[in-house]
Amino acid sequence: MGEQGDQAWRNYEGSTALDLTARYEALQPELLHTGLSDLLPKTPGTILDVGAGSGRDAAWLAGLGHEVVAAEPSADMRAEAQRLHPEALIHWVDSYLPGLDAVYRLGLTFDFILLSAVWMHVPPNERQRALRKLLGLLRPGGTLALTLRHGPAEPERQMHPVSAEEINRLAKSHGAMVVHEESAPDGQGRSEITWTQMALRLPDDGTGALPLLRHVILNDLKTATYKLGLLRSVARAADSAQGMARSAGDEAVSVPLGLIALIWLRLYKPLLDNDLPQSPLNRASTQALGFAKQGYQAICHLSPLDLRPGATFTGATASALHQALKEASATIQQMPAHYMTWPDSDRPILVARRGRVGSAPQTLRLEESYLRQFGEIQVPLHLWRALARYDAWIEPALVNEWERLMFTYAERQERQLDRDTLAQALRWSDPERNVAYARRLAAPLLEQNRLYCVWSGKRLSARSLDIDHCLPWSAWPCEDLWNLMPSDRKVNQNQKREKLPAAERLAQASDTIIDWWQQAYIDSGEATSTRFFTEASSSLPVDDPGNDPGTVFSGLSAKRLALKADQQIKEW
User: What is the phi/psi pair of residue 44, to 5°?
Assistant: First the structure.
């Protein structure tokens, strides 16, 4: 097995190469890789064996009918391997991590990549690049398998500590899923050595959306962070504001450009507040960013959490936010939406059309009708669905690439960035878990003995009342009024907890839920009623509910099904 990364593999020459070859060939690959066998392509495919060493694994894979590119940087090991395993299906190359330059020159992508006893040779400071390069060679839906060695290093062989936790973290930051993790004893019988077998997969929903997203995130040319900002804004909208998407024919959805601009401002505000560079030439807050003009400067006092659908502003703040949204919409339409194109084409992926924006209203409510006047962005339907379903995997890849770009820009500017500050500024700010407002609205119903647990139907008292998140906070942080419901404390804490209500249970509770909504929210005054329906129309996949709580309940049921299908949350 060739050493990687720091080129210590050069020690694998002469007698060392012959000795290691004998040790490797004494092990049977079909027994050594039992846990990975089910992950191999079911039909003959193309496989990359990185650090192929003696050719043992490459020969095994070729014997199964696969074509194997065997990457081994040690000339002596490569020569011995070719003597032992002259199979025509094995193609040998002189290449090593982290760059794998010779493999990349082949222009191939692979169904399966194997790193057997290699990762411990890659220095920790090169592992992020190494994984990035490996995943770049995988076909959509392809699998990357690694075996991790735990235990004391051999004195003559340079090794570094490894862990499954590191692989999980790196996979998440690169948009990959860990699909297999299993411990195994040492194949040579060494009691002090153990192994972990892991497999990573690039998600592929069969539509081509996920490969397209990876292309934009990792490969597309970027002269600023704007493309990442736009894609992340659309991803956040798909995850939390599906109710604002409208059909635009059979192959696209129309999303309010004002909504994307609002999320854009929310994403960029912490970055500019911390003077983090968004292009290679200029610092952040001191440069004339296309959207950071008069309107943006006048809303600097707002928190990112203020910039959310359903919020209301008046007076000077309403006027400033209106202007900031106009400026952000123009920047999005003219820059990233125009230049984010399909591979090998100048055709935009996201078609942005500006609207006819009137003057700022005296009272500005961030609802769909207002946000749509700024225009629309048409998102390909398969892309929108992928963003809605796989945002938990897509978001870390976007954040990781955004972070990498900012470090690159800072280096060109001869600046040092604080990694913790940068990570905090990139973190999406979810609302705090706060049920105080719903609890306050429940108080009059408690006093009148008219408050009931939506799940059990039991009349509640001040001691037994819990405010429950119908769709669990741990799966989908949502503090919208429609999601907050009265529950008996014992039912909530001992039975429902963080579970998703099953379809039958939710249907049985429909009358009690709608009755709670009516009394606590809709009948509590215009402001609360407006907030309730605005939040529902934004975050639930329904057409305009008007003033009908039944339509809101239909949206709740649909969102429950989506969470069940996409996240496999345990049901109650």
Answer: -50, 125
DSSP string, 268-297: HHHHHHTT--SSSSS-STTS--TT-SHHHH
Q: How far is CA 361 from CA 303, 312, 320, 342, 535, in A?
A: 21, 11, 11, 38, 20
Task: pLDDT band for 1, please (50, 70, 90 cuts).
Answer: very low
Q: How far apart are CA 237 and CA 249, in angstroms?
A: 19
C-beta separation of 325 from 265 below 8 A: yes
What is the per-residue pLDDT for 440? 93
Residue spans of alpha helices (H) in 492-548: 503-508, 510-516, 526-539
CA distances 319 to 19, 128, 163, 323, 372, Å, are 76, 45, 53, 6, 17
Nearest to 296 by CA among 263, 259, 322, 333: 322
Q: CA–CA separation, 371 vs 366, rounded Å?
A: 7
Task: Please check the confidence at residue 464 and state whether its pLDDT lies above 70.
Answer: yes
User: CA-CA distance, 129 to 432, in Å (whole number)?
Assistant: 35
CA angle 259, 262, 268 (to 5 degrees): 140
Q: What percent of the chain has pLDDT over 70?
A: 93
Whether the CB-CB separation of 489 and 466 falls below 8 Å is answered with yes
> What's the pTM?
0.65
Contact in structure between 49 and 114 (CB atoms under 8 Å):
yes
SS3 151: coil
The C-alpha atoms of residue 214 and residue 216 are separated, in whole angstroms, by 5
End-to-end C-alpha distance for the chain, whole angstroms? 50
Which of 229-233, 327-331, 555-559 is predicted with the least confidence, judged by mean pLDDT? Answer: 555-559
> Taking Cα atoms as reference points, which of 217, 214, 229, 311 lies closest to residue 270?
229
* Nearest-5° Cα angle at 393, 561 to 302: 90
- Listed residue (34, 37, 35, 32) closest to 53, CA to CA: 32
Task: Using the predicted structure, report yes or no on whether residue 4 has a pLDDT greater than 50.
Answer: no
Helices (H), 377-467: 381-412, 419-426, 436-447
The two structure tokens encoding residue 142? 């392809």
Say how far apart CA 438 and CA 442 lie, in whole Å: 6
DSSP class of residue 552 equals H
**Lowest-pLDDT choice from 277-281, 335-339, 398-402:** 277-281
Structure-block tokens of residue 354: 């500006």
* Predicted confidence (pLDDT) at residue 125 exceeds the cutoff of 60: yes
Helix, strand and coil content of the chain, in percent to the nearest 5, comes to 50, 15, 35
Q: Would you say residue 124 has pLDDT above 80?
A: yes
Top-ranked range on mean pLDDT: pick from 204-218, 517-531, 534-548 = 517-531
Q: Which of 40, 32, 29 is nearest to 85 (CA)?
A: 29
Q: How far apart are CA 154 and CA 20, in angstroms?
A: 12
Beta partners for residue 389, in sequence order: none
Q: Pick left, alpha or beta for residue 277 (phi over 0 → left; psi -120 to 50 → alpha; otherwise beta).
A: beta
The set of long-range contacts for 459-462, using a CB threshold of 8 Å and a minimum separation of 24, is: 460/486, 460/488
431 cis-preceded (ω within 30 degrees of 0)? no
